[in-house]
Amino acid sequence: MLAEHSKSKKIFDNGFQISKNADLASKIYGKENVVNATLGIFYNEEEEMHTLDIVNEEYKTLSGRELFNYSSSINGEELFIQAVKQYLFGKNFSKSLGENFSEVIAAPGGSGAIYNTFKNYINPGEVVLLPNYMWSSYKLMSKEVGGGYQTYSLFNKKGKFDLVNFKNSVMELAKIQKNLVIVLNNPCHNPTGYTLSSYEVKGVMNILKEACSLCNVVLINDIAYMDFNNKKNDLTEFCKDLPKNFLLMITFSMSKSFCCYGLRVGAQVAISSSKETIDTFLDASLYTCRSVWSNISKGGMTLFSNIVLNKKKYKQLVLEQTYMKNLLQERANIFLKEALEIDLKILPYKSGFFITIPFKKGDEEKIEKKLKEENIFAIIIPGAIRVAICSIPKYKIYNLASKIKKVIY
Ligand SMILES: Cc1ncc(COP(=O)(O)O)c(C=O)c1O
């Protein structure tokens, strides 16, 4: 019955199923004996999903009309758009954007923002360039829009961003494609927790500017985890001296930073030195919004702008986010210290929700089974285990590195 192009669609990303298995194991063996490091959701030390007080309080003040009416436009509420710019670039956002043109469109989470970009910038038969360790939805989305994907290698032998491989991968595709869409997931990359240094960001931008002499370049920077960066975020380096055929697309999400996973609010922030590029972005993206999800939750957008545009509420938000960030760092430090002591190799981690442990490719099934026997539940990706430290309390992190080492070797 399915249309031809839908016949091979099947999701193998079984995170939600593994999490259910973890819940089942908790019932059988006791919660304290099970490590559920599966999903990218922040849990507190009591292993309950964490929510922010400022978000709960503000949500309760919203009127029925603010919550349930349609958004006043497909782009999103005007105040939401202003708040997104301010959230990313500060009050002086027009100064940070320099000579560039910019438009913001509300989307259902970061997922919607990325999908919308793939949809309108990948030509049929073209591939998107993804990191070799990645959030698996990128692959699904590239297929969904009729494209394919190739990967660049994230790390060199020194554990730094592999600019050489990145350049080779970009140039190879730039020579044969009209458009080249590239995904960077920075800061706090999922699944490794890596964040590029400013030197590496400059390197990436120089390579992409060079590629602009061969094809149009669209850089998606997925900033879903931006508020867990333990260094200050600076997006301005991505906006400097942009060639006319370069489009920067920052994809924003409320899910992780506001603990609002199910609210489904995010945005595409398009930046280019070409007015025409931004005008056509607006035309095509609004068309896609209208034809796929129409418009975004008015309540979610109002919640965001009410907090971000109010000095006192914003201050409380930052305080609560800092609490989460510090707790994550404490959890990470326990794991990293023990991993170092027992010589367990991990992929370069700076900050964020996940730590990734590589193993020999091909051993995935065996390792998943052995982890389960130890009552450890985590996502197995090709050649690595992703441990979601966002969802496990500190007391369960002690000795986890050594248990994982036993499973791998
Ligand atoms: C790397 C990355 N980007 C984007 C998202 C999108 O999240 P959402 O669609 O909930 O905003 C996620 C969610 O897990 C993610 O891990």
TrEMBL record:
Record's subunit section: Homodimer.
UniProt record similarity statement: Belongs to the class-I pyridoxal-phosphate-dependent aminotransferase family.
Superkingdom of the source species: Bacteria
GO terms of molecular function: transaminase activity
Names of required cofactors: pyridoxal 5'-phosphate
Keywords tagged on the record: Aminotransferase, Pyridoxal phosphate, Transferase
Keyword Thylakoid recorded: no
Keyword Cytoplasm listed: no
CDD domains in alphabetical order: AAT_like
Annotated ranges, domain Aminotransferase class I/classII large: 48-404
InterPro entries: Aminotransferase_I/II_large, Asp_trans, PyrdxlP-dep_Trfase, PyrdxlP-dep_Trfase_major, PyrdxlP-dep_Trfase_small
Protein name as it appears in the record: Aminotransferase class I/II-fold pyridoxal phosphate-dependent enzyme
PANTHER family from the UniProt entry: ASPARTATE AMINOTRANSFERASE, ASPARTATE AMINOTRANSFERASE, MITOCHONDRIAL
